[in-house]
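Pilot study result, target chain (335 residues):
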Amino acid sequence: MATMRAIVLEPTGRLSDAELPKPEPAGRDLLVKVQAVAVNPVDTKQRIESGTRVLGFDVAGVVEETGPECQLFRPGDEVYYAGDITRPGGFSEYHVVDERIVGRKPASLSFVEAAVLPLTGLTAWEGLFDRMGLPEPVTDGIRRAAGVPILVVGAAGGVGSMAVQLAKLAGLTVIGTASRPESSAWVRELGADGVIDHSQPFRTQLEALGIREVPYVFCLNAVDPNWDAMIDVLAPQGKLCTILPPMGTVAFRPLFNKSVAWFTELMFTRSTFQTPDMQRQHDILTRLAALVNAGQVRTTLRERLSPICARTLEEAFARLRSGRTIGKIGLEGFE
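Predicted structure:
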């Protein structure tokens, strides 16, 4: 039996290097030879009670083999994707993934530069355009939501770094939140029109920028500590999208009084429930790659580690747990 190298999570919470059977593709699966991966906060929150589990939901690699029902890819194609939370993750030498949630890697990027984009890119795209219904950016340069303000709470992180860029491409006036000089500088570098501190009241800071209220709020941080401030500045009949659920009780009545629409966004929903529009993620990644290749979206890679092994993953996880990362951390190459 052919084997492969992988990094597994043990019940103790420890990551360790392992040798596992090489998977085989079936149905619409692709067998991908992994070249680079990226880490996300969700990786650090995974827990198991017994056995081991392979983590990892951001991958860039090369298609080695296709399942008998594949229609979109062939061996040799360079791809990038965010995977499926119900299947083994991509921190392994080879990985099996349904082609409907895979896109062709942007040709202008290296594997590690591309590996940091799928999970955050899909989350930002789905939140902005599928959930809140904003007009999608296109490569023709036409700004279809010109001047409409949006507040991106947590703009310096992985999803925020993509949301700022995509919202700007759609023509929105983007106000991002950040709490440190270096993270504020990063948000401005990505194109934000203004930056405020999410540790301080929102209203006075927005008013100082000449904005009284915003019709859209995209919250990429914890919901509870930001809830009152977000609802306070959200315009009547506005739209709020969060990528995390509240962990405690939040006051719903102010949201109700303003007839605000509250959307939730979980990038794994389509693959988890095998929704009829699951191939939408292939389409989004294709559109995102076109924007990258056109020079309109940049990689959010900020730190690069090597090789892909338990030791470097532990190092990357420690940086994520610090809560002070900007952009994304990517890993490339097996030992």
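One observation from the pilot: The chain has a mean pLDDT of 94. A full batch analysis is planned for the follow-on phase.
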